[in-house]
Design brief:
By secondary structure, the chain is α/β, with parallel strands linked by helices. The protein contains five helices and seven strands.
Length: 210
């Protein structure tokens, strides 16, 4: 079965991976709050859902417990860019729910159902391993995600569960005035190409840092 589920498929890295998958003959089911702004053809199926909400998280988890895909890519993520105390708690909770809890619930559903497709989770080369000022909730979510995936890789050694740790990417998710824009940042297309090639290699390590 050549079907892939991709969260965050409407823009950024998720959209770039979606385009590559479609070019390689896969049917893609994309989950995001809004549909892509371009026509991706009949092989793309859009599923509307805000994975920061408990309702959409539960819907995705239940769906993955009964529907099988050859690959699943958890790309959706984000968070507020501001001093921690300058934003309301609901903004930080949104980041943690989207960038960690939604993925943790989905992985739990897969493990419970003994449904083990190739899975990609996307962390951050910066935020998951060090302080990232003005991105506290995003940083905490990425720390948690990396810890969860590393543990599951040990608990389920035969599961092709992979974790990508890219550097900052040039997308509209990174504010124009953000400090990282003064540094070297990746283009989503380049990251998607490297990621796709890595996923095709069955002997590759399950952690990939860009």
């Amino acid at each position: 079965m050549k079907e892939i589920l991709i969260t965050g498929a409407s823009r950024g890295l998720g959209l770039a991976l979606t385009k590559i998958a479609l070019k390689n003959g896969f049917v893609v089911e994309g989950w995001s709050r809004r549909p892509p702004q371009i026509d991706l053809g009949e092989a793309f199926r859009f599923q509307s859902g805000d994975l920061a909400s408990h309702e959409s998280q539960r819907e995705l988890a239940e769906y993955l417990s009964v529907v099988q895909f050859s690959k699943i890519m958890f790309v959706a993520g984000g968070g507020p860019y501001a001093l921690y105390g300058d934003r309301e708690w609901k903004d930080h909770e949104w980041a943690i729910q989207l960038s960690f809890v939604s993925i943790a619930r989905a992985l739990h559903a897969l493990a419970r159902a003994k449904n083990f497709p190739q899975v990609l989770t996307v962390g951050s080369a910066v935020a998951e391993s060090s302080a990232d000022p003005r991105a506290a909730s995003y940083t905490s979510a990425k720390h948690a995600l990396k810890g969860l995936v590393e543990t599951l890789q040990v608990e389920y050694p035969s599961w092709d569960l992979r974790h990508l740790s890219p550097g900052y990417m040039d997308t509209d998710l990174l504010p124009k005035g953000a400090a990282p824009r003064a540094k070297v940042i990746w283009g989503p297309k380049d990251v998607a190409k490297l990621t796709w090639d890595w996923l095709k290699d069955p002997s590759a390590k399950r952690q990939y840092r860009l």
